[in-house]
Amino acid sequence: MAMHESIFDYSRYRYLWVSMVLSLGSIVAYLWHDPIGEPNGGSWLGYTLGTIGALLILWLLWFGIRKRSYKSRVGTMRGWLSAHVYLGTSLILIAFLHSGFQVGWNIHTLALVLMLVVIFSGFFGVYTYVRYPAIMTRNRDSATRQSLLDEIAELDAQALQLADTVDPKVHAAVLRSIERTEIGGSFITLLRPGDETDNALDQVKTFMEQRDKPAAGAPKKDMSTMFAMVDFLSAGSADAKSDALRKLLDTLARKRSLTDRITRDLQVQALMEIWLYIHVPLSMALLAALTAHVFSVFFYW
Amino acid sequence: MAERFQIAIVGSGPGGLSAAAHAAELGISHVLLEAEPHLSNTIYRYQKGKHVMDEPGILPLRSPLEFKAGTREAILGAWNDGVARLSVNVKHGHEVSKITAQPGGGFLVECANKAQMIADRVVLGIGLQGNIRKLGVPGEDLPIVQYTLDDPGAFSGETIVVVGAGDAAIENALALAKQNTVIVINRRDEFARAKEGNLRGILKAIEEGTIQCYYNTGPEKVEALNVGRKKGRLVLQTPQGRAQILIDRIIARLGASAPRGFVEGCGVKFPSKDPSAVPAISPQYESNVPGLYIVGALAGYPLIKQAMNQGYEVVEYILGRKVEPADEPLLRDRLKNVPNFRSVDAFIGDIQRNVPLLAQITPLQLREFLLDSEIHAPKPGATVFAKNDYTNTFFSIVEGEVEVVVDAAQNRRIKLKRGEFFGEMGLISGRRRAATVLAGPGAILIETPRRSMNRLIQSVEAVKREIDKVFIARALQSRFTPESPIERLNEVVESARIVQFKAGDIVFNEGDPGDCVHLIRRGSLTISRQIGGKDVVLSYVAAGNYVGEMALLGDSRRSATVRAAIASETIRVEGEAFKRLIQRDPILRARLQAEYSARTASNLAMQQMPAGGDIISFLIAQGAGEATDILLIDEALCVRCDNCEKACAETHGGTSRLDREAGPTFANVHVPTSCRHCEHPHCMKDCPPDAIHRAPNGEVYIADNCIGCGNCERNCPYGVIHLAAKPPKKPGLLSWLMFGAGPGPGEAPYDPKAGKSSEKKAVKCDMCKDLKGGPACVRACPTGAAIRIGPEEFRAYARNRS
Amino acid sequence: MRWQILRVSQQAKGATSVEEDIHFGETLTIGRGADQAIYLPDLRAALSHCSVTVKNAGHYRIQSLIVAGVRVNGNIVHEIDVGAGATVELGGTRLKFLAPPKDFEGAVEISAMAPEEIAQNANRFVGKLTLSETRLSKRWPSWILFCGVALFALVLPLLANYVPAARPALDPLPIGSRDTWQAGQLVAAHHFFGENCNLCHEGNFSTVKDESCKACHGNIGGHVDDKRFTLSQLGDSDCAFCHRDHSGIEALIREDQELCADCHDGLPAREKNATPQMDVADFSSKHPGFVVSLANWDTNGEYKPTRAALATPGIKENSGLKFPHDLHLAKEGIQGPEGDEVLQCETCHQAEPGGALIRPINFEDNCQRCHQLTYSIREADRQVTHGKPQLMRSEIEEFFARQALEGAFNDVNAPTVVRTRRRPGQPITPQERAEALSWAREQAAQSVDNLFNSNACTYCHTVTTDDLGGLSVSPVRVAGFWFPKARFSHRSHESMTCIDCHKAETSDDSSDVLMPDIDNCQACHAGEHGKNKVPSTCITCHGYHETRLDLDSKGLPELR
Questions:
Q1: Is the ipTM beyond the 0.90 threshold?
Q2: What is the DSSP letter of B327?
């Protein structure tokens, strides 16, 4: 019976066991082995672990290819990712045992460091994969992103219509807020979405001050439509139109909650992808470093 | 006195046209009557540049007019040239309204425009499309009045009146309203005939005022204006009285008048009430009215090439010549492996003698039938089909016998003799084969694809009756008393009858007296119970199983409510008869008891966790009820990498057949837009080249002979089929990976121009039946979020999820 | 002021129609209000959205009348001066300001945007939605990092390897130098050339060759007698086999006993006893007893020391010397020139400078103080030179001759001539001389005999007299090098006393061999893996490179 298995419990933790056996095996070997002088990559165990590690790294790198060779029948992606995660983790140990915990200012340690960064960025990836999907679903509430965007556009139109029935000033303010709305953009804005909601608080503060001295004229540049609205209310000429105004406020509130949802959605997705922008380039660097490491060791044998 | 012709051909479709052309070629006096100002209206109304295919490729073309796959324009052009070259006597604008046989032989042909003529023979080539209904008011033929709309984008800033309340009208109106002022004229007070989506769309538009609508209103007259900004004026009859609007153009979508009435008016008989039925005709295409011939779609030959061939042949027949039908060599080839095969006709004779079921149909239909079918002469002992195969073809035994393995364990078999048939279960229930069938000595079998069989069932009432009768008997036996002879069941079978349910219909209610058992013959049911005022789904029962036995065995009242999850058919067995059967048959009783307690247990289990029930009803709501295999995504695991879509695109020529994001989600279970491989695929309903098939493992796929007509796309309620052109070759993966050459995996085609190539074919999920190891989408899911499951797994799935 | 206003409207199939009308007024107001000069029935426009004034022919000033501003040439502004050709987008409408035609001051063309354009603008607010759309990329950073690392970790060092000219520039670099290829620190001694890898490494994937080592360490011999057989016959025994560099400042030499045991364990068996080598694997568990070299002379007096296992029963050393250790080390003391004194081992056996070995004993330093070689009572402090019998004899004869010839020798038994004192210059007659000398000869003979045979020499030596009366002292030979094939340092055993190992107090005969056997060492020392004893590998005592040490005729190690 097909069931959703996460990458962890894939086929009853097969690869967890594999990597555990591998790790324990190397630990035992390392403890049992008594090399000439300090333990290092030059002993037979060192060479063995080194070979294992190098092959592991190459295999882990191959994941990038396998992931995209969709016709491949070599295992399922789930299996591959599961193995990728578990064996990748055990690589930390193997690498250290291989080096005999020696570090120094040399390319060998460079390779080690790169490897560690890659692996740990991978850990972050796993974390996001475990944490965010559910959040994203909840946030999406089974609406597609496009539908949300469309709704925003629709709300804009409504808001304009309502604002028009209220007051030119309000209309202008609404126009302005529409012009200012910005969903997504650069990767920074994706990861740290605009603080629309964050500074809502200061807006309310500003509004408080404003109400103390209603003399204050048209909204200044950093006051949101929300503020303009309330400002208008406080002006007290709302009686007839206050109904439309309520609607307008609702619409704008709705729009805000929508924008928040979308930006959150984008942010979560971005978080689930961003780590790859470290993971992948650094693993390429690792490939180079590894080559240099192996080459240099045997070139000057 | 009306002009007299030897042959009058009605309708300038492929059939009529090629008949007329052949007549002209032979210099026979003839007339081709066409209602429209142009030839073959149906094809003429294809959208611009549409690629027209020439299936079936194997069939040779015999017609003075040339025809090969190409764009609509090219084909129409070729035909016009041909007609001009052969100086065919075409009369445009002649819509034939009546054909009456003359006492002295020959026919009187009367046209809507009062024209009359006498013809010795009449060939009907009017197709099924029928004639477009016109406004039926003065000015209906003004250039500002049009009855089709190729490209809504072509108009902007105009005032356009759309007449009609059907889907076509609504779709046009909505499309035009984007950049035009659109007014809809609806003769009735609601949009009754419209699809759900269209209905919502138009009402919203009307409410928002983007479209203005006159209800209960009809046009009175149309006038062209040559002063002022607007091109014309439309006068309306509204409930409030007369009104007039200044307009730029009128688009009337009033549908077409089905030809059947007219044809019957000519005295031609139809075998059944079924709308898809076609008149019975002789091998010479002659209807039951002597001298009145029928060719083309109306004769049951929807494909252009067939129709053209018939046009040629019918003229030959009229001249009393003997033509070997175009399909003769094909049939001969098809039959060549039949032992001691003499001739096609002889074989057809055998069939009609041996197989009562097929004796009902005309030799011509039989030829067609054979052309669709496969003829097998398997060695004794060879497997015809195996239990749990997903094939749904229908077998008739022409010679010899076969053995049905009822119970593999005890190796109990039933013999089926010459003239009997089998495979009807898979055909009707759309589910896996219920038993293995082995060939017996000297067996000669006809294997008929689902579609042709259904066509037959619908057009020949007797066939339907026969098959149903046998089905009921066998279904009941195989389900209830496989070990005892079928005669035992006679009483039950007598009492049984077939009941249809629409989706959501109640089969019986909790608390009703239990007076019958339902054996599900197609579709599926849900069992639910009122718990705390809430309707909790306890279980889901797929076709081939039964419900209602509980009340008969134990407490006499229904313990739960049973609804049809989708449009379903059940075999209703009278409770009394069934009870007696149980008493007679202890084994059956024991088995029922066992299943009964099992079901009660699982129901109780379900009640413990209503969430599971919610998931089931959610899945049912998503049409999982009629699915045989559905793609589910656990959104708690899905990381939105879209690798599933990419995998699909990459393994299927660059276009993804699934849309991960679209589709609803409930309790983290997401049903993406992708094929469910329905038990009775909607897409198969109306496929001219019969290109949609079900593979042995249940995959519903589209074969290469698709002509890109888009019927399946329209018929699929889940929107999982679309037309796509073959994208160009991509550069290798590595060159993309390293240098970003070309589009990445699953990305849009490299060369946008190639994407536009008009030769589009329908594409849909084929569950990667050609790839070992199962669907690429599931295999490519890195986090294990995507799985595919069948309905029988729903219960376990739901329990596991809740 | 006259404005020309052109309204362009799209007809079907791309056809357009233009209506012209004229507006009089200083400013051209644009908005949704009915009072506006240009009236746009579009909610995206404010009632009075913006105003345009002509600055000079073909130049306009556009002012937004609302906070939202107005979109001119694609970006939102509040006030801007533009030339002809500027476009203002308001909702679904585009206003294009043109150069005014003749007798107009301003001209504007109003057209509706294409639907798809409007749609586009509608979601202008939607930016890039996924990272892949942004400037972020995985590809080029990968390339940069890959190439960068490859350059510094691989290419530059290789360059330095192949282009010596580049080394001065490259080798000192903190990154990109071949130094960064070193996995571990070089041994101290190699630091001075450490930067030049090629001194040891050829850089062609081959291991370090012995030649590279021999360039400096040429004078170090092989394992055993090179003349007999060469190292290569010992299997994989190149320098690198034992000497591994790049593993710390002083871990260069391989010391594990397996190194030797590999060959020496069961060697005799393998060699069918063709070799004098013994079967050794571990000091405590598998090591033969000690073998000493004993002094020995062949028939024609050639010194040929013999090797004998200490374990051999009744093993004797014939050093030709009589010396009872017990007597000398007696607790109650032994009689010395100034009465009794207690001797220690150190009294005679003194360490050489450095302390590794013990100085050889010699008569003058160690014995003569007590054992004096006097021969005349009258002159008691007069002694003969030790060790040269002929010289001793003549010394004595000369002594007595001089006495006799000088005269005035008061001894009643002596002849007169010896006793009489003469005046200076008074000659001696030949008869007197003969008489005196014969007396002297007699005296000398007497004391020589006395010295050699009765008391002094025979005390320690064996003296033989040939038939002619010629005396000879049998030669003395102490086995100077007991263990020519092992290294032992008394210095590192200073914590112990001599008698802990050398049983001297109980030895009453100098023929006793006082060298301790292996069990004595094993009391404290064990093999490499010895648990609660001093772990000692083979090369703790034996040297790998020391070629065979034989003793020359003088009993000194032959240096090769």
A1: no
A2: T
